[in-house]
Each structure stands twice: as structure tokens, then as C-alpha cells.
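Researcher: I'd like a candidate sequence for this fold, 548 residues long. If you have to choose between options at a position, lean toward the conservative one.
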């Protein structure tokens, strides 16, 4: 799942936990200052926690019973599984939408966020315009702006906007005291923070609910400040009932309005919560713990392999890659890591070129307990991969389909993209004339089942790799694996017959790996096929008729 949507899912989950905790335990309490901290924490923690490098935890599953451990060697004559583009000859009108669904949704989401931000910026610009258009004076470091015809008094930062002719003198004093409380307690900062959060995370309904709860709590705080400093609280409440709001409100300011009036009057007349009840806020600690646990459960399992970029451990299996640039220090670290997993790495032959890159290597992994061992000799040395577990291990120049992408990225980077069985750009087919579907149709139309293989009932999977040069020309077509020479030659012929791709604007050369599954169907409907590749790894399926 794309990082943006993972982050949105995580931040929405944190916000939901905070908001539900607030309305369950704290909404009816009169600890308004504590509630302000709690609601602000909801915005801050939900935005920050998903960005923290929390360690992932997972639940282990019992491994299935297995028979005698076997050695696995995957190389030119093995059964590799390489993550490549899946292509099918059938196309539908909705395919372009599904193929680009993530990009489309991302653009839509960002567009809505930008629109909301622009709307809020326009409100800020309008406030600035109002501040310049009215008569202003400063008192106690607070700026007061008189605006005739203003629909409702409000404050923003250290400025109070009001219409002196719209209210009686007593009401006006109550209004100014209320807005002064907003200013002195910096409530505009709360509104700006919550508004920005809602613009960026607009899809989360709990964000808007939390913003509304924060806004109401700020009104409680301002009311509390006025009540403490007035001898006529009843008159203040009466002023609330008399003052109405017309026109549109701005989301980033604090209004003295009849919004929330019922709740505000109820809270002003409510008995103060006992101080001992503040213990409830300790419930935030398990809430934060639960939140961190949920986030770590959605994090990918972090592998700590002593910081060695050539090693990765996933689900009890150790994966590794050796490139010509692998240093002696890295090799020693790999030895130590393998030793911790009860395996021994021996490198009896290691020669380097003048530039320090490996020229020749003999690489052998042994497990004294099981007696399993795999070895690899290469000269001149090219990038190769290995894996080692309690039941199996393997080594060769082609990575398995389950190989960690981080190691494949290292291999591509340190081998100038020349890695067998790897596609360096998964979107390469979009550069084909007519797009991905046309690429699949062209191969399906061109590839044939060699007669000699039909007669001998030979089926299996062919893996072929080629380069797409910057100008779109196909070059260096190489058969990496084929159950019969004729099958590999046929796929190679079909690839070489493809028209050129569109030129790459970045001027890069891409490596492409294609898997073709050959199957034979008997007269009784039974199929002869090789099970090395699952359907999701097959680019093209060629079905012929068995001769007998």
C-alpha cells in the first residue's frame, strides 16, 4: 500500500482512539484546561506517531511439518521466481483506471487538501483586509478594530473585531471580555492547528469532530474566564441568548456567537467536577500504549542485521546479496550473521581488481547440524543471491520471487542495473506502442509452441531478460532459463521481433525480465505443465496440444 494511504490510515486510527476516549471519559468534566491539552494532543500525536520509527512486533506461527531438509540451487538451470509485470491478452475499458487507481486517488486527495488550504488562506486574507479597513486602537497590548455592519464579533491572534453600534453597552462589555479571554489564552493557535490538520486529513471524520470539540472547549474556557471576573454571571448568560449570528463564519477565528449556546450555558451552571476526578487523565497512558501497539502492528518488520545492507532476515529466513562492490568488512559481517544462525560461510577464493571490485569468488555456506551446503563459483564475478534457513538454502545469480526488495535494490544500484531475473522499471510496458495491453497482445500473437517440444511433451517456464535502450531499441536478449533449447529460442525470437519502445526521456537503459509458461493439453483435457511459477508470476501462457 502506498505510503500516503498507510499514513492516513494510521493517523486516522490514532485520532479515532483519542476522540472516542475524550467523549467517553472527559467530555462532561469541567476540567477545561486539561481537556484543551487532551484535544491538542490528539492532533499532535496522531500526526507525529505514525512518523516515528516504532519497532514492529509480530505473532509467530508454527512452521508446517517438513520432510528431510533438501538443498536448493537456483541458477541458470533452476526454477526461479522473479517479481515481474503480469500481462494478459484480454483488456477491458476499466483497466487503465485500475492500473492508475493509486495515482488517481492520490491526485484527488491532494487536490481536495489544496482546495481546503486555499479556502482557509482566503479567510486569513479577509481577516487582514478587515484589520486594515476599520478604526483601531490598542489597549493592554490587544488591538481592537471597530467595524460597522460586522455580522458577529470575533478575535484572531491579538486582535478583536466588533461593531460598537450593534450591541448595548452591557452586552458589548461581555463580548469584549469573552474575546479578550480568547486572546490572552492564545486560542487562535489551537484553531489554526486544528484547521491545518483537517485540511490535510480531511477524509477522517473524527478529525472534524475533534476540531468541533476543541472549539467548544475553547468557548468553555473563555466563558469560565468571564464568569470568574464578573459580578453578574446571569447577565452574561442573558447576553449569550440575545446575541445571534448572521452570515458565514470563518473556521480559523473565535466567534462570540450563539453557536454551542445551549452547551455553554449548561456547563456554566454545572457543578464543578471534583479535583480527585483528574485521575481519569492517567488513562491517557494506556491509550498511548495501545496506539503505539497498533501502529507497530502496521509497520513492516524491521530487520536489524548489524546495519549490513547486504543481509536481510524475514520470517526466520536469512537473505543476502553479494555484488562486485561488497567489501571485505561486509563479508566478515555476513560471516558473523550466518554464524549466529548456526551456519558457516567459507570463502576460499577471493580476488579483487585494481579498483577494489571482486573479480573472482568461491562462496560456500554450510550447516553443520543438517549437513546441508551450497556453493557458488563465479569468474568474472557477477552479482549473486543466497538464502539460508533451517530447512532449505540456495544460491545463484537470480533472486527468488520472495527475495526482499531492499536487497534487489542494492544489487541493481551496485551492478549498474545488470542483475539477472530482475526488471529495473515495472512501468516499462507503458512505453510500448499501445501500452501494456498491446505489449501482452503482441507477445501472445507472436509466440508459438515449437513442434519438437509438442512431440516430446515438453512443457515448462521460460525466463528471458533483455535491455531497453534509451532510444527504445531492444538489445541483449538472453535466455536465463528454459526446459528445452527450442522453447527458449522461440521466446527470444518473439522478443527480438517486437517493435521498439518509446524513447525514455531520462535516457536510462532498463533491464526487463519476462516469464512465459508453456503448457500442453492432452485429448482428455489433462494439462502437462511445470508448477515452478504461480499464475501471478506468468506474463504469458502458451498452451499447445500434446501429440499423445
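Model: Candidate sequence:
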Amino acid at each position: 500500500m502506498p505510503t500516503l494511504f498507510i499514513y492516513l490510515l494510521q493517523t486516522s486510527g490514532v485520532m479515532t482512539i483519542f476522540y472516542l476516549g475524550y467523549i467517553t471519559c472527559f467530555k462532561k468534566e469541567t476540567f477545561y484546561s486539561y481537556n484543551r491539552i487532551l484535544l491538542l494532543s490528539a492532533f499532535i500525536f496522531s500526526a507525529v506517531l505514525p512518523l516515528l520509527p516504532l519497532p514492529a512486533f509480530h505473532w509467530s506461527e508454527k512452521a508446517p511439518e517438513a520432510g528431510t531438509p533438501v538443498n536448493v540451487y537456483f541458477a541458470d538451470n533452476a526454477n526461479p521466481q522473479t517479481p515481474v509485470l503480469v500481462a494478459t491478452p484480454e483488456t477491458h475499458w476499466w483497466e487503465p483506471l485500475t492500473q492508475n487507481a493509486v495515482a488517481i486517488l492520490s491526485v484527488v486527495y491532494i487536490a481536495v487538501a489544496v482546495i481546503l488550504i486555499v479556502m482557509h488562506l482566503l479567510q486569513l486574507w479577509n481577516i487582514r483586509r478587515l484589520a486594515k479597513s476599520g478604526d483601531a486602537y490598542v489597549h493592554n497590548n490587544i488591538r481592537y478594530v471597530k467595524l460597522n455592519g460586522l455580522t458577529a464579533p470575533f478575535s484572531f491572534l491579538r486582535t478583536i473585531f466588533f461593531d460598537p453600534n450593534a450591541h448595548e453597552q452591557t452586552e458589548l462589555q461581555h463580548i469584549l471580555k469573552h474575546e479578550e479571554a480568547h486572546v490572552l489564552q492564545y486560542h487562535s493557535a489551537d484553531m489554526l492547528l486544528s484547521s491545518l490538520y483537517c485540511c490535510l486529513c480531511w477524509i477522517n471524520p473524527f478529525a472534524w469532530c475533534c476540531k468541533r470539540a476543541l472549539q467548544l472547549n475553547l468557548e468553555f474556557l473563555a466563558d469560565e474566564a468571564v464568569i470568574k471576573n464578573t459580578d453578574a454571571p446571569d447577565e452574561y448568560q442573558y447576553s449569550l441568548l440575545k446575541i445571534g449570528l448572521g452570515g458565514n463564519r470563518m473556521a480559523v477565528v473565535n466567534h462570540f456567537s450563539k453557536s454551542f449556546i445551549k452547551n455553554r450555558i449548561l456547563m456554566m451552571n454545572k457543578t464543578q467536577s471534583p479535583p480527585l476526578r483528574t485521575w481519569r487523565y492517567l488513562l491517557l497512558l494506556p491509550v498511548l500504549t495501545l496506539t503505539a501497539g497498533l501502529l507497530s502492528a502496521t509497520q513492516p518488520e524491521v530487520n536489524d542485521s548489524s546495519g549490513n545492507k547486504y543481509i536481510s532476515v524475514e520470517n526466520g529466513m536469512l537473505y543476502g546479496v553479494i555484488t562486485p562492490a561488497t567489501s571485505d568488512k561486509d563479508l566478515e559481517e555476513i560471516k558473523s550473521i550466518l554464524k549466529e544462525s548456526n551456519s558457516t560461510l567459507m570463502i576460499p577464493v577471493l580476488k579483487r581488481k585494481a579498483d577494489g571490485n571482486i573479480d573472482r569468488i568461491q562462496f560456500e555456506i554450510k550447516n553443520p547440524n543438517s549437513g546441508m551446503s551450497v556453493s557458488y563459483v563465479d569468474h568474472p564475478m557477477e552479482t549473486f543471491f543466497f538464502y539460508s534457513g533451517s530447512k532449505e538454502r540456495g544460491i545463484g545469480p537470480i533472486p527468488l520471487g520472495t527475495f526482499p526488495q531492499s536487497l534487489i535494490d542494492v544489487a541493481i544500484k551496485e551492478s549498474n542495473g545488470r542483475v539477472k531475473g530482475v526488471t529495473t522499471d515495472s512501468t516499462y510496458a507503458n512505453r510500448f506502442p499501445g501500452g501494456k495491453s498491446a505489449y501482452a497482445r503482441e507477445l501472445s500473437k507472436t509466440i508459438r509452441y515449437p513442434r519438437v517440444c509438442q512431440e516430446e511433451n515438453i512443457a515448462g517456464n521460460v525466463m528471458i531478460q533483455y535491455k531497453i535502450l534509451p532510444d527504445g531499441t531492444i538489445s541483449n536478449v538472453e535466455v536465463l532459463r528454459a526446459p528445452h533449447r527450442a522453447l527458449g529460442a522461440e521466446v527470444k525470437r518473439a522478443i527480438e521481433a517486437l517493435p521498439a519502445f518509446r524513447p525514455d526521456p531520462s535516457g536510462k537503459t532498463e533491464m526487463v525480465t519476462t516469464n512465459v509458461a508453456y503448457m500442453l493439453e492432452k485429448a482428455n483435457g489433462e494439462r502437462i505443465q511445470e508448477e515452478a511459477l504461480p499464475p501471478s508470476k506468468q506474463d504469458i501462457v502458451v498452451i499447445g496440444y500434446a501429440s499423445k
